[in-house]
Write a sequence for this structure.
């Protein structure tokens, strides 16, 4: 079981964690995130959540301590790479392997969650 620490974009930088097995799929990660935010994300389907793996080189994006400094205006967001997890059928294990990332350690922010606005034509 892996524990990912996530940052919800546009929600004042609120942090939350999601537990998921590395043999589960990106879609399961979207559903677990939706479940965590069920009251806040009313009217948003899990498939509308874009999950981005955030890294800086071969390390995770930033520490939770750095995030606290960002919220206080004491630091700037470091350069980082955002890898959108766009294939809902991709295994979490495969995503980490392709991105050349280790299992997520505690004390780091691993994922950025963005609410996509799907264009509905019906």
């Amino acid at each position: 079981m892996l524990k990912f620490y996530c940052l919800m974009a546009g929600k004042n930088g609120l942090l939350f964690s999601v537990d998921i097995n590395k043999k589960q799929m990106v879609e399961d990660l979207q559903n677990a995130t939706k479940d965590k935010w069920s009251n806040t994300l009313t009217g948003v389907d899990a498939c509308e959540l874009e999950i981005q793996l955030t890294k800086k080189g071969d390390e995770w994006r930033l520490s939770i301590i750095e995030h606290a400094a960002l919220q206080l205006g004491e630091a700037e967001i470091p350069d980082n790479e955002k890898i959108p997890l766009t294939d809902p059928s991709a295994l979490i294990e495969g995503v980490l392997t392709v991105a050349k990332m280790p299992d997520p350690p505690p004390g780091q922010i691993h994922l950025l969650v963005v609410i996509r606005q799907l264009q509905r034509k019906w």
About this structure: The radius of gyration is 14 Å. The chain has a mean pLDDT of 81. The longest strand covers residues 49-56.
